[in-house]
Amino acid sequence: MTVERDAEDLIAEAAAAPVDGWGFGWLAGRATEERPPWGYARLVADRMAYADAALDVDTGGGEVLAEVPRRPRLLTATEAWPPNVEVARRTLRRIGASVVAVAPDGPLPFRDASFDLVVSRHPVRTDWVQTARVLRPGGTFLSQQIGAGTMRELSEAMLGPLPPPAQRHPEQAAAAAEAAGLRLVDLRRATLRATFADIGAVVWFLRKVIWTVPGFTVERYRAPLANLHRRIVDEGPFVAHAHRFLIEATRT
User: What CATH number is attached to the domain comprising 108?
Assistant: First the structure.
């Protein structure tokens, strides 16, 4: 097979694979990403064990919430991406959690002071005012967030050189939390190595993690995909870096 034919097969396979939910099992053996040292799922489980009413914002397919061993009396999740809503409902129905479909950037559809714990893994955007509003006094917000410039190497492989990122800096999140009336408890950062062993893994990732290359389609980016495929064949797995930060705050 020629290099071009190999690329076409890999891309076609990845373009046809489902990307619903927020699991990354399809990438097993094809891509890797280091995990942050703080263990977000364990921290969520610890906080959930002592909560009475909890909310998971931007739950994805409900994967993290489904693994919580000791659940609060009331457990609710929100999701804005329609393909994920039904996945999350199927996943979380068995543990008695409800899933509320919300509009992107819309207000949280809950009463003031409804929850003593709000968590969120990789939210699209954190509405700090809304988060503070639905927390009870003394309640906790815990979130693992995507940091500025995450996967920049992959974005630039598709788009060319990019300006320095202006958003998603941990310090910005901390300032916004405090401006909304929350007290910062913890702020940690991590840079994580990610590798892609073939161009199919790249295509699948870009289809799933849509903010890496906004508006990505195979047809629109066929030329840079072909270039990156040749680079992987010649040099080995493509390496990028993900940036994550953990933020925890309480309502005063």
Answer: 3.40.50.150
Strand partners, 104: none
Kindly write down the DSSP assignment for every residue of 127-176, as one continuous string.
-HHHHHHHEEEEEEEEEEEEPTTTTHHHHHHHH---PPP-S--HHHHHHH
Q: How far, in Å, CA of 189 to CA of 147, rounded?
A: 8
Determine the Cα–Cα distance for residues 241 and 227; give it in Å rounded to an integer: 20
Give residue 190's pLDDT: 98
How many domains, in total, are found in the chain?
A: 1
Tell me how far CA of residue 98 lies from CA of 57, 162, 238, in angstroms. Answer: 12, 40, 39
Say which amino acid occupies 31.
A
Range of the domain at 220: 3-251
- How does pLDDT run across 69-78, given as a tens digit for each residue? 999 999 999 9
CA 7, 12, 18: angle at the middle one, nearest 5? 135
Choose among 148, 239, 156: nearest CA to 194.
239
Burial of 164 (C-beta count, 10 Å sphere; 0-12/13-18/19+): exposed
Q: Looking at residue 96, what is its pLDDT?
A: 95
3-class DSSP state for residue 236?
coil
